[in-house]
Design a protein that fits this description.
Strand order of the largest sheet: 2-1-3-5-4
Shape: globular
Distance between the termini: 28 Å
CATH superfamily: Sugar-phosphate isomerase, RpiB/LacA/LacB
Helix content: 40-55%
CATH architecture: 3-Layer(aba) Sandwich
Number of helices: 6
Order of helices and strands: EHEHEHEHEHH
Structural class: alpha/beta
Oligomer: single chain
Number of strands: 5
Strand content: 15-25%
Radius of gyration: 14 Å
Number of domains: 1
Length: about 140
């Protein structure tokens, strides 16, 4: 599985931590930036992620900003993107099981590293149920 990852400056430190973790788990990682803690605009990275996911350059996207909210809003402006902030373990599971999100989002300033790793694992190990949930996903893009 190829995972794209991007952040703004507030998520840069967490992004590098997540990249190291993913590489240890033998995932192929596409780093879309930013590459430092120098201030940048989170919408630029949300849009960049959306473009890469929609172009099938990665199977899953991970976004990080200070809270996860702004960058998820930017990504969700794109038809076909289902970005969700994984703010709890239950949400991590249901985001995959019912919504089959293609971008998962974290708050670099509001979430603990251990919680983020646990939620990535929950998401990756949960199957999508399909059925009525697929029908609902299709309604999002109409």
């Amino acid at each position: 599985m190829k995972i794209a990852i991007a952040s703004d400056h507030a998520g840069f430190e967490m992004k590098t931590f997540i990249i190291d973790y993913l590489k240890q788990k033998n995932f192929e990682v596409l780093d879309l930036g930013t590459n430092s803690e120098t201030s940048v605009n989170y919408p630029d990275y949300g849009h960049k992620m959306a473009a890469n996911i929609l172009a099938h350059k990665a199977d899953l996207g991970i976004l990080i900003c200070g809270t996860g909210i702004g960058i998820s809003i930017a990504a969700n402006r794109h038809k076909g993107i289902r970005a969700a902030v994984l703010y709890s373990d239950e949400v991590a599971e249901m985001t995959k099981r019912h919504n089959n999100a293609n971008v998962i989002v974290f708050g670099g300033r509001t979430m603990a590293r251990s919680d983020i790793i646990k939620r990535i694992e929950i998401f990756l190990n949960t199957p999508f149920e399909g059925g009525r949930h697929q029908e609902r996903i299709e309604l999002l893009d109409k």
